[in-house]
Specification:
47 residues; mainly alpha; 1 helix; rod-shaped
Length: 47
């Protein structure tokens, strides 16, 4: 039973870190795009 629990726990941790990495990349891209839109007018790049 202990071995089974450890296997489940390992799978859970691995899945959470992969999901966290993807979410982190998406949030980083969204924040970067938002900052670019905010600072574009100050750089004279008004579209």
């Amino acid at each position: 039973m202990k071995t089974n629990y450890e296997n489940v726990d390992y799978d859970s941790d691995h899945h959470e870190s992969s999901t966290g990495l993807v979410i982190g990349i998406l949030i980083g891209a969204a924040v970067g795009a938002f900052a670019a839109i905010l600072f574009a007018p100050k750089s004279g790049k008004v579209s």
